[in-house]
Amino acid sequence: MKTFNVGIIGATGMVGQRFSLLLENHPWFNVTAVAASKRSAGKTYAEAVEGRWAMTAPIPANIKDMVMMDAADVEAVAAKVDFVFCAVDMKKDEIKALEEAYAKAECPVVSNNSANRGTPDVPMIVPEINPDHAEIIHAQRKRLGTKRGFIAVKSNCSLQSYVPAIHPLKEKYKVNKVLACTYQAISGAGKTFERWPEMVDNLIPYIGGEEEKSEQEPLKLWGHIEGDKIVNADDIAITSQCLRVPVSDGHTAAVFIDFGVEEKPSVEEIIDIWNNYKGRAQELELPSAPKQFLHYFTEPDRPQIKSERMLEGGMAVSVGRLRPDTQYDMKFVCMSHNTLRGAAGGAVLMAELLCAEGYMD
């Protein structure tokens, strides 16, 4: 695989910082531009994140002294890179406009933002679930009038904790309805305990917009391409509740599923499906792909945040406590690292897929 020059737009935020660490020694991607708001432009990256660095690892040496660019200076950033990762903190309409401007400048955008997730010809890809949705890029390029430029987005971070476990069951059996309660880490809000002391010994039973995303976005992941748009799946219903909990990193989900078939799979059959499931990312042996996507734990008190969140570099999904339910057919618990698998890591993996499949050429 050839190497690609990449930029990080929104490099100073928590997800941008995570991108910088993931790309430090990446075998395919070489960071040649870091950009954020106008107030950061002209500073070195180290100066721009001074007092804001939220990672435990130090600032990567390869970008520490790199001079920050203004993310709004699209042509200048695009001239330095083959594509960009985007994780900006702006209003949705502003993000949509910015990402489209990069795409129209023939600079593909791999976005962590939610602004374009509902755009019908923008693929929202989890490489192990719906890699075929990348095909919609051809229709999107036609709309934008571009040869190379396009936008691809990553789904909401909390979805990564439970949709991956449902997916192989949905492929083999009909899954009729799902109830998912997510318990989400404070890094999902871009916070640390130092910055958000109110979260210590606390739980907030509300995360704005999160339940709507949890109920709608999986339908796009499981949808299909029809002409020039992705049509959402209509064969499954999802309801959710999302809570903010005093955890630094790692989203957990309590999941209840109902199979719409009379012959329902046994606990043993489901665990076997999970343990043996491989997606396109594993087939292609992408650099960031976990060797095993889904890990099932037989212990009654697993998975746990502290012991499992960094499984396979934080890119695997942990599952446990599968058992029959009195109201639904089955229930289980899932967990994934929200800023790795759920955010920057998931976006890097998606970019690897798009490169491997020729969409960045």
TrEMBL record:
EC assignment: 1.2.1.11
Residue ranges of domain Semialdehyde dehydrogenase NAD-binding in the record: 5-137
CDD domains the UniProt entry points to: ASADH_C_arch_fung_like, ScASADH_like_N
A GO biological-process term: methionine biosynthetic process
Keyword Ribonucleoprotein among record annotations: no
Taxonomic superkingdom: Bacteria
Keyword field contains NADP: yes
PANTHER family, sorted: ASPARTATE-SEMIALDEHYDE DEHYDROGENASE (PTHR46718)
Family: Belongs to the aspartate-semialdehyde dehydrogenase family.
Protein name: Aspartate-semialdehyde dehydrogenase
